[in-house]
Amino acid sequence: MTLDEIQGQNHAIGLLRRAIANGRLAHAFVFAGPAGVGKRATALAIARSVLCPEKPGVGCGSCIDCRLVGAGSHPDLFIEDLAAAQAERATASMLSIEQIRRVCGSLALRPVRGSAKVGIVDQAERLTAEAQNALLKTLEEPRGRATLVLVTSNLDGLLPTIRSRCQRLLFAPLADALVATLLEREGVAADLARRAAALAGGSLDRARELTSEEGWARCEDLRSRLERVDRLGVPERLDLAAELSPRGERNRTQQALTTATVLELFRDQMVAAARDAGPAAGPDGDYDRLAAARRAHRRLAKVYASVRDVERNANANLAWDKLLLGLGDLRA
Ligand SMILES: [Zn+2]
């Protein structure tokens, strides 16, 4: 993908295009924003724009340099991420200091094919403090035409000394309509694309996951079991809570889909209860229906609080346990 083809990030792309056109591309960036909104694709598009000899400043997308960038094997492009860490050590959950030394060392050398070099560190929030400190020298003493892009979905995971030495670009969640359009372009049926986009919180990756047969079936199954939560005893609730918690780090997308599904269900229930209660708030109202609407409202508040805990990386297991057991208190 070239910079022109990145969608839904006009602010970031406009800024980068102007900087490249003026020959003033920063030596170091932090791309921050939710997962699956085009941060890494934009970092790769920068690589194309500075390494492509056919359409300099933009990238043609089809010459040998652009294709090497796409394959991640251009000799002037260096990418490090968690997958690379796990290729070296299967159980790795953080990027290693060796990876950072590799990128920094490579950026300091002369370009092989072109006149510039690009380094990308994805999931930069998974750099240890030691690894981040190893980055400082490169950030403080940039050499030649080298650009380093740190990509992260959690800006707070980076040390202040790192953040202050990089130009920060914030990437927004994508609009639901854009996510749906992009899914349709990939061959997803319009109806499924629309529903998946509504659940995906502006992340194309999550939406894609949802449209996979397995992802969609899991969400539907979860929803139907949560709808019956009032009828479940304590052991079944704890089982269900355990299923809501992801096992292992690679399940971040799955966790996001789970919380989106939980929120969607309880929001739907509250909207339905409020509609049922209608103008019942008046003196002639149906107090049972009004009480049901209030209950649905309180329930949604609890759900929001739990989701917030999960998203703040509190103990997810505990947060879901608390929620599912707590919902029982509200049984009519
Ligand atoms: Zn090209």
Describe this structure in words.
This protein has 332 residues and is an alpha/beta fold. It folds into 2 domains: 3-170, 3-Layer(aba) Sandwich (Rossmann fold), CATH 3.40.50; 212-330. Helix content is 55%, strand content 8%. It contains 15 helices and 5 strands. The protein has helices at 10-21, 39-51, 64-70, 82-88, 97-108, 129-140, 160-163, 176-185, 190-199, 204-211, 213-227, 234-244, 252-277, 287-311, 316-327, and strands at residues 28-32, 77-80, 117-121, 146-152, 167-170. A 5-stranded parallel β-sheet has the order 2-3-4-1-5, sandwiched between helices. Helix 10 (204-211) crosses helix 13 (252-277) and helix 14 packs antiparallel against helix 15 (316-327). The longest helix has 26 residues, at 252-277. It is elongated, with a radius of gyration of 24 Å. The termini are far apart. The mean pLDDT is 88. Zinc ion binds at residues 52, 54-55, 59-60, 63, 65-66. Residues 52, 54-55, 59-60, 63, 65-66 line the site of zinc ion.
